[in-house]
Design a protein that fits this description.
alpha/beta, 8-stranded mixed beta sheet, 14 helices, 44% helix
Length: 301
Amino acid sequence: MQKLTHWLNQGRFHKHAFKPHFENNIFVRHEGDKSKPALLLIHGFPTCSYDWQPIWDSLSPHFYLITLDMIGFGYSDKPTDFPYSFAAQANLIEDVLTSLDINQVHILSHDYGNTVTQELLARNNDAKQKQASPCFEILSCLLLNGGIFPEVIHPILIQKLLLSPIGFIVAKGMGYDAFKRNFDNICCINIDDIELRKYWQLIQHNQGDRIFHKLIQYMKERVEHRDRWVVALQQYKQPMRFINGLEDPISGHDMLKRYQELITDADTISLNGVGHYPQVEAPEQVLEHAFSFWKSHKIMT
């Protein structure tokens, strides 16, 4: 668990007030030279910012890195009365970036984090329509596997069960073996058992089993706000690339095809033999295509 302890020790806790007189502790890690471009890394479900550990050290010479465990994930608080909406997570990110005095940012996101990115892009659009300044300007986006178009998501059984009326029972009854089976299903290159146990530890931290079924409600929200979030991608005029592990049973081939259908001049990268967690399964490939993207747009030298 040495790497996990190091990850925790390199971060800090930010106080986030999501309603008056009620604060939550949010784990935040930021590192590097603030004169360099700021890169915000937004994690997916059900894991946390530790997902970025395999590529963190390679990114740090080139960017001022910022990541966090969104509320309900990882080392952050997991209250039972939080709305767990994408809007609430976007509010949290705006709060964290404001506290760091960041007004321009590049984004690298995965899975659940892609939809948070879409909401942040939509807010930038809202601000422009009102001729107002957004909380921060998004200068580029790199998206990894995720359900950005809900009509082509293929949820696995555990997701369906957590969404069902007995979701809270399923969450409480889920153990490490079931967790590992599901990860082995969604990842083409299996994640080492030692690392998976760290992910499980982080999910269980702060009694995470109490709210696991609440987190998964994001799948309904994606359908409800589908048009807002798809339009946000379609109207985005800054550099954007989608890197997709094709063997992902949830958001692989079909998600990539839909992206190419709906996004004009789509910049996409296909990763053969890679599943739902490209940054963990194939970090070298992700770095190769990320660096080529940033260099081609003169984001980094």
